[in-house]
Amino acid sequence: MFLSTLGVTERQIRTELKKRQRDGQIAMEGRGGRREAEKVEDEEKRQSILDHINKFPRKESHYCRTNTKNEFLAPELNLTTMYNMYVSEMAANKKKPASRSLYNNIFKSLGLKFFALKKDACGICLRKMKENPTDESFLTMYQKHVDEKVKVRQVKEEAKKMASENPKICAAVFDLQQVIYTPKSHHSSIFYKRRLANYNFTIFDLQSQEGRCFLWHEGIARRGANEISTCIYKFLQEKDLDGTEEVILFCEGCVGQNKNSVLPSMILYSLEHAKNLKKVTVNYFETNHGQNEGGCMHSVIERKVSKQPEIMVPSQLATLIQTARATGKKQYTVYEINTVDVIDWKRYGQDIGLHAWRDALDGSSLVWTKVKSVALEKRKGECDMLFKHSHMEEFSVVSKPPKRQKHKHKSKTLPRPQNAYASVPKLSLPKYNDLIALCSRPKPVVYQQDQIMFYSNLPHTQK
């Protein structure tokens, strides 16, 4: 009757009696709360995850650096691999690992991604697609953006046709491939260390389908305007010897590498010393709308590299690139660049005053950030520079300042420019130490003596 009056069961009464403490009080409900010890344990697990993730070297995107704050981890990594490495590390330290879901959540909160080659996103086109703005100024800008994209592709098709009909004309595209790091291995310790950056600059002939690769690493040179211009200079020399009279180039514009006065300075020197070459034009694709057939070279090379379990030193990379193309097709030609090969074209342009060439005969002014096309043409022993701020415009001819004719060098041909480097570039001490660690662990990633010597002999800073 007592139970019926209260509407409870006998089991509920027995449970409450069991929970009665010595002072007669009933213990408080334990569900839904966390013990302080558990909270401390959770915080320790979170910190262990952060410590583990922060061990992996990060890098900026090869593309869209100004449009994203994300940092990227090595493309060989993924969340499963990282979590398994974390579990192994915790087991080695005799600690209990956190759950996979907690590891994933913390990883995502850090804004990290795994590096993957992908097409650049165009901010203008994305805004048009998502917001569909109606203000006249944006619509005018968007239409010009689309017109430029279409026009430069038409120019490229016309150049390909010209090259197919005339053996004295060459049309080509060029680009710098994303960085390739060595040593490459499936060894887990490699992901915690900074590795040697290798640069591969490619030029693809649109008519002959020949691919040329210019390969070097950060212990030889950087990847700026001097390096890019030096690679193109070697290509122009080769085409001049072949009897080519006109070269038409296409690329994506990067002010720090190819969209500045450094590249025209090199072209000017090439033309003034050429036997056959008379004209070189560089056309820049509309921003984020590159249509570069050379990209297929990068894909082929990346596929070959990804299938190779180990690439210990850059010399092995050169061999891989050379044989990357499918059997039956002409293999890529690889030129290994040395420090002494890199010419200081920037200084050369300053010496001859080309960096100051701005005013055109039609009254317009050259603005490098707006340039869509630049050409240099040799006529009767003199070279003229022309430019466009739109692919839909005619070329404007640059008016050369009188001081060039009064240059201290009296000969018609200018002297050979100087080397860009007085000595080889040095690696930072932390990176050098990481490379040496990969050669000297109890289970070294790099184990052959000649390969160990290669990394040991790399110049580096002392601090």
UniProtKB/TrEMBL annotation:
UniProt xrefs under PANTHER family: DNA-DIRECTED RNA POLYMERASES I, II, AND III SUBUNIT RPABC2, PTHR10773:SF19
Protein name in UniProt: DNA repair protein rhp54
Residue spans of biased composition, Basic and acidic residues class: 31-43
Give me the ranges of the annotated region Disordered: 19-43, 399-420
Q: Where is the composition biased (Basic residues)?
A: 401-413
Tree of life domain = Eukaryota
